[in-house]
Amino acid sequence: MEYYILVEEYLKKLNKMSVPDPMIIGASVSDLCRFLRIAKVTARFYDSLRDEAMGNGRATCVYDTGQECTIAISDRLTTEVNSVAVCEVYIANGDEPWDYNERERIMLVLKTTMTYISRLRLKHVTDILSFYDADGYHNLRYFIGHLEKLDQEDRLTGKVAIHFNLKHFSLVNQQLGREAGTTAMKNYYNTLKNSLDKESVLCRVGGDNFVMICSRTELDRVLNYLAGAASIYDRDTGERVMISACAGVFIIPDGFELNSPGDIMDKVISASQSARIPNNDDVVYFNEVMIANKERIVHIQQLFPAALKNEEFLVYYQPKVNIETGELTGAEALCRWLRKGEIVQPSDFIPILEQGSEICRLDFYMLDHVCRDIRRWLNEGRSIVKVSVNFSRRHMADVDLLKHIVEIIDRNNVPHRYIEVELTETTTDVEFRDLKRVAGGLQHTGIGTAVDDFGIGYSSLKLITEVPWNVLKVDKSFLPIEDDDEMSNRAIMFRHAVSIARELGLECIAEGVETPQQVAVLRESGCSSAQGFLFDKPLPVAEFEAKLSGYKYMIY
Ligand code: C2E
Ligand code: MG
Ligand code: MG
User: Fold this and answer.
1) Which one of 130, 165, 189 terminates a domain?
2) Greatest Cα pair distance in the chain
3) Confidence label for 539 from pLDDT (cuts 50, 70 and 90)
4) Which amino acids bring their CB within 6 angstroms of ligand 1?
5) Which of 323, 391, 511, 533 to mutate to test the pocket of ligand 1 (most atoms within 8 A of CB)?
6) Does pTM surpass 0.70?
7) Domain-terminating residue out of 286, 309, 327
8) Domain count for the chain
9) CB environment 428-448: b (16+ within 10 A), e (fewer)
10) Which residue in 42, 65, 176, 271 could disulfide with 284, CB within 3.0 to 4.6 Å?
11) Does residue 96 carry a pLDDT above 80?
């Protein structure tokens, strides 16, 4: 087929040069060979001079009349990258030898076709170099090329684009070693790739991020694979590791107009980013709402520095209560944004600030404002309770975190025992090591440490046994809800969490306590501290202050 194209090119060239007989224009390879009285043409290709010497090449028979024949002309061409093409032209035995003109014409055809063949092969090599990354994965350029081709041929209809990121792959690397991690990733990719049809492509776009396009009918199967598949990481033993991914999906609508590849890339990437946010679904489908969200995110990130400077963020205090005595035992500082006279809840801005490092500035601001309040209460002679402040995971890599926290507390002249730092679980071993270091350092300076939201995410026994904590805050999802089939299961889990905390000598507090029935479960489990709407919502500072002097909550 390629050869036909080459010969056509040659014919065009002949036409342009208007050299030989115009009657051959429009002829096929066989017409051309017949016209030139050729019995057979073969071509052989070698990737290197060494392959040529060893006879390791690929041969193609270009034309063959089947007659008995002998080689009459042989030509050899070496390219810039030392690949070799050899072409042989045969004349039928007993046929009249070619005259000078005929030989010249045949040579011209040969030279032209060989140059074209070599150029095509060279293109093939450069394609390989430019469409694969250093680890042998198809790359983004390949994906975009494929996308454009599908678009030109009107074949985007019925397709879906997917961007996915492997979950906790750094953890896989740490646990298995880099080499085994690389093998596992390659096998995960190859298995998926080999299961796709010819119209589909799967490419790696850096690190553990992939992008693919496939037919809509394959979507369920692909998502099933991405939800978790065992991948071999040791070829000798066949040992496998589970790999899963979070994915952004864009179902390409019928009649979709692709103005640039970014029209699809932007959509799958923003859906995939959303899928990576903790607590979101692992698969997020792109919709127009996401574009609006993206604008909102940028807007909040832009507003943040000035809002912080103008002190628009307020500290609300949610009381912690002893369920046996009704006494106020502590409080959690929770942030509220007073924007244009309205209160904005943390769920509307904290996850956005957590995407960057802005959250760290907010946490230091909150700690500073809590310390100012405590200092004032101390100066006013009020009785004080310990206040816990949330610190995002984003701080974990900060080697000066401890120094910074202590500096803020000391600057406000607040005794360390009045402050507790709430930290959440981590996902990677590196973070885990940092968490241990930070929690240990805090305790060393007399600042309390609490593990927040225990029970959701990645809590493990290792987390609570190896990191020095003072307090275990059991997440509200562990509390039984009325009319819930899982009510008794939850109560059992809650009881276990409390007994583990006790055995480890940790204080235990239940978050999100809303009903007297839940208080009963706390009491049965031996957990005497609660925080929740049943007692109080997070309160503005003035309302909270009023409860500092011996306020008693109702006992349920
Ligand atoms: P969190 O640290 O787990 O805080 C507890 C959340 O549970 C608070 O939500 C609180 O209002 C809510 N809550 C308390 N009692 C109940 C209840 O009885 N029922 C229910 N359904 N919810 C209850 P809030 O104030 O909206 O804060 C949400 C999250 O935002 C916090 O969860 C924390 O992760 C984050 N956050 C808030 N302020 C800060 C901050 O200053 N820094 C950081 N890094 N994160 C913060
Ligand atoms: Mg908290
Ligand atoms: Mg919590």
Assistant:
1) 130
2) 122
3) very high
4) 318, 334-335, 345-347, 350, 359, 362-363, 366, 390-392, 422, 452-453, 476, 511-514, 531-533, 538
5) 511
6) no
7) 286
8) 3
9) beebbebbeebbebbbeeebb
10) 271
11) yes
